Amino acid sequence: MSLGSDLTVLEELTSNAKQIQDDVLTEILKANANTEYLSRFLHGSSDKELFKKNVRVVSYEDMKPYIDLYIKWLCSSGTSSGNPKIFPANNIFFEKVLFVSALRSLVMSKHFDGLKQGKMMRFVFSSLESTTPCGLPFATSTPSFIKSEYFRNQPKNLTSPDQVILCPDAKQSAIYASGLLQAIHFLENYWKELSNNIRFGHVSEGITDRGCRDSVSIILGEPNPELADVIER
Asked: What distance in Å separates the CA atoms of residue 74 and residue 87, rounded to the nearest whole number?
């Protein structure tokens, strides 16, 4: 998603927050007024004042019976209680993630020279999914997003193929799991192996994920000793 070259949209979002929040609430009510939960209070109406009057503030436990009815969940990566929470998500959520990602890139471009020219290093990874007691999968928002059609179909300037990004084994996909420190630690342990892979155009035998292996093999193609020498230095 492109937001242009300035921060006008960010200024609009932050200077008119109340109206934007009211619009978001209206949008949610119009889409959900007839759901099992809200229909008890709104009877099909999307009126904001009726919502404020009839719908009380609830806790996670109050909503859990409804959440258990969903077949697609995300897991919070942080919470005040110390325990991750599972919550439902739909395609609108991923559209909002795209918007936030574009806005974040715009802010970063304002403060860091060269980002628009590709002078940056970005690590993208997909962690393993977990399952609920009944066997349905859930994951945190980032892995869920990069496995979605929104990530696959948007224009990307990433070096790694999607198959590598989606590989759940960090040792095979050469990505970091929680921070730059782990990425540096990985390079410390495997830089010789990576150099040899590039030099001889051969993927290490330890890479057993078929999608990851095949996509990188295509990129490696012929041996490239000059690039390997740069990595070694």
From this structure: 5
Averaged confidence pLDDT in the chain? 77
Alpha-helical regions (H) of 33-120? 39-42, 48-54, 60-67, 91-111
* Residue 85 neighbours by CB under 8 Å, 6+ apart: 60, 75, 76, 79
Cβ proximity of 20 and 13 under 8 Å: yes
Residue 198 CA to residue 55 CA, distance in Å, equals 60
CA angle at residue 83 from 80 to 88, to 5 degrees?
A: 95
C-alpha dihedral sign at 182, 185, 190, 192: positive
**H/E run at residue 87:** strand 86-88
Distance CA 231, CA 187 (A): 10
Neighbour-count burial of 65, counting CB atoms closer than 10 A to its CB (0-12 exposed, 13-18 middle, 19+ buried): exposed
Structure tokens at 44: 């099909």
Mean pLDDT of 44-51: 91
Tens of pLDDT, residue by residue over 109-144, are 888 887 777 677 776 666 667 777 767 777 777 777
pLDDT-derived band at 47 (thresholds 50, 70, 90) equals very high
Packing angle between helix 8-15 and helix 91-111, nearest 10 degrees? 120
Distance separating alpha carbons of residues 65 and 86, to the nearest angstrom: 12
**pLDDT tens sequence across 34-43:** 988 899 899 9
